Fold this protein.
Amino acid sequence: MGSGKKAPEQAKVVMDAESMAAAIRRIGFEIVEANPDVGSLALMGILRRGRPLADRLADHVAAIRGSRPRVGSLATTLYRDDLRAGIGCVKPRLGETHFDFNVDGLTVVLVDDVLAAGRTIRAAMDEVMDYGRPARIQLACLVDRGGRELPIQPDYLGEAITARRDEYVSVRFVETDGEDAVILGPKGEEHDAGSI
Amino acid sequence: MSGAARTAWTRKDLIGIEDLSRAEIELILNTAPQFVAVSARESGIKKVPLLQGRLVVNWFYEPSTRTRTSFELAAKRLSADTLGITASASSMVKGESLHDTLANIEAMHSDIVVIRHSYAGAPHILAQRHPSHIINAGDGCHEHPTQALLDAFTMREHFRKVRNEPRAELDGVRVAIIGDVANSRVARSNIWCLTKLGAKVTLCGPSTLMPPFIEKMGVEVSRDLREAIRDADVIYALRIQLERQKSCLFPSLREYIRLFRIDNESLRLAPKHALIMHPGPINRDIELAAEVADSARSVILRQVTNGVAVRMAIMHLLVNSGRMMPAAASQERGA
Amino acid sequence: MSLVIKNGHVIDPASGLSAKKDVLIEDSKIARIGHRLNGDDVIDAKGCVVCPGLVDIHVHFREPGYESKETIASGSRAAAHGGFTSVVPMPNTNPPIDNAGMVEFVIRRARETACIRIWPSACATKERAGKEMTEMAELRDVGAVAVTDDGSDIASSWVARHVLEYAAMCGLTYLAHCEDASLVEGGAMNEGFISTKLGLPGMPKAMEEIMIGRNLRLAALTGAKIHIQHVTSAEGIEIIRRAKARGVRVTCETAPHYWTLTDEAVTTFSTNAKMNPPLREAEDVAAVRAAIADGTIDCIATDHAPHTVTEKDVEFQIAPFGVIGLETSLALAITGLVEPGVVPLERAIALMTSAPASILNLPVGTLREGGPADVTVIDPKAEWTVDPERFASLSRNTPFAGSKLRGLVKATICDGRVVFSL
């Protein structure tokens, strides 16, 4: 394993760097196929690890079509549904929502590393729509680990990985973690980043 | 992520700065920027659902357009419901006690009560005995914590931008607070906040309006305006209340202006980069000359804008921090 | 019917007695103090101190006019609970005790409703307005034991001088509440670092010290007998000390909160820490204790000042001044003065019996054969926690709620009757 935390004993790599790269390249093609007009496309990465994924996808789109789509970041922390119910509590911030374009009329592709319950995606949709009225919203995920609590499905998916409720699935990117890998392991050993 | 980001908010109320740790202050200051962005949304809705379904009551014994509207806007931008109670409309005039009025408010299931009161200690009594989250919007001459927090936020925001240091803090920054310190809750809260953040505070004003032993709060006192502002990075002017002149605390406005007014004349001895601040409302041309208040180095309007964001951050932290939910809080406090 | 108090350690400061003795009471008089005495009723005072009924020359019983705070009846019960058999209530009632009819009212109400001895004081000026003298000779003749405008000072030195002279002529002591009111506009607590921090208007020590100085000068000028009430500050004590050394006929008192608490007690904004004069600073508390030890302070007086819970349950700045004290005074003396060695137990008892009685020439405060049977039985070692809900007073405004104190009154006997027993 590369730099960063030592992988816990029972955790295992379920996608290595090569398979990740292949999946990301394929998603890039699928996005272009569905949205030939790059000028009206915006990839919004859901922080923290959705952003490096969105950047890579944007690079692929640029390589295919010759022009790079808009890219932005969504923090979604201000739109969580658990605070209102008194369930969760304020956690350390992962960064701030940042994008420098108007979403009206655009095709917004939400980009996240792991899809689980679907609540983060719902929060992301609420947030985007408070900024304006996109023409459509789509969802691209590298991994779908199941455990849905809302009727939300990805339009573009890298890989479906079955994980038990007591297991975590975590994606590592070179940009954020020093290596590319998808890890499956028992819960309690690593902070399950960003998948509510 | 720095250590400060790992601090969690655990207090039921925000009554004053005196008891807050540096980490708690920084938590508030670091939570505010995301709310600055919400208010700055150009095309979108300037709202987030963090306090949806909650009730924020603004209970103002003293009239105050500026602070009251700031709190109201902050609550509304968090999607809370708001209710404003002003003294003349409330039962206080009929002789109803502080407790009875608050009990009536709570019968409406308030989550947050923002209280401004002419007497020090009123928020403490309420916080001890009532389950709502109490925010002190100014109690007598004692504290005005949200003002100090938005002032520190504004200073920090400015220095980060101007020095191009996105992580700069206020350590070593020199702040001169000028005016009627004795009667200023803004001064007291600012002294606590700035000294805890490592800034150096100098006070200056008529000695009849300088409280005794104030040096024990960790500040210097200067009798001469020019000396006080000579090295200042921030010049903070306090409002002088015109009634003080009648109770023989200084001889005339004319003399006050000559000795203590911040104007182009007195600023000639201050550093060019010194920031001009004021808690508002300004007595134009009395403590602060109009041309200085409107000049490029005045961040007074920035203070107002940041006030909404800082108050949003505070309300969010109070309500959404998981601990000290209202029902549990009343059990913990006991009678 | 006779009552004997057996096996106790009898302390009578007036005679210097401090020994194991029995005390026999018959027909509301002390019949004998001796060994192996017998009587119809027995109080076993083993392990206890037996002393004269305590005397407090500064209390507020609020009747007439403020009966929700306290009445002569409830105040006397509170006094009995605290071991007191004689008290001097202050005349700042409504209407004030500034004429013979009002003195007679207090005496009648005491006879009808009080379980202990009430020695009324009367105002020095009419309506306590500080302008015209009261008819002090008549007031004395109908039973007033002292004159005072307590609650305020006499602002005009002209009036104060003449009040002192006239009171002296009538053989009455002037009880002086020393305060320069013009210096304390709106003040709510001691002026110092705490008041600066809390943003509360302060009452500087000078407010007392200026008037202690003025009143003592006038006492020296007139040769009058003056008693300085509720002394709190180091400088004030020093002024009194020097006046005594010069032969001025001055005595003074302090209250238990002034040797126990400082202005730090106000930081919680509890109105039970608000009284006038206010709690001062650590150096003043030390000076009060030193003055008790060296005899500059002549006696202890509680300044028992009841206010209803509703009246005190308001913002600090507008709450009325005052705390009660009859039911905690003895324990605070034992815990705060005797235990740390400031004074021995015999002296503490003297400060609460023979000393205050002799200041006003009251025929009480001592145990002697043939004298009035006012006796208090105390367990000086018993520990207890102050619970205001259990007070006999109608009011609850004590700064000591929840405090663990040592020294408990087991029984109070007044005029031969047991008026309180645990």
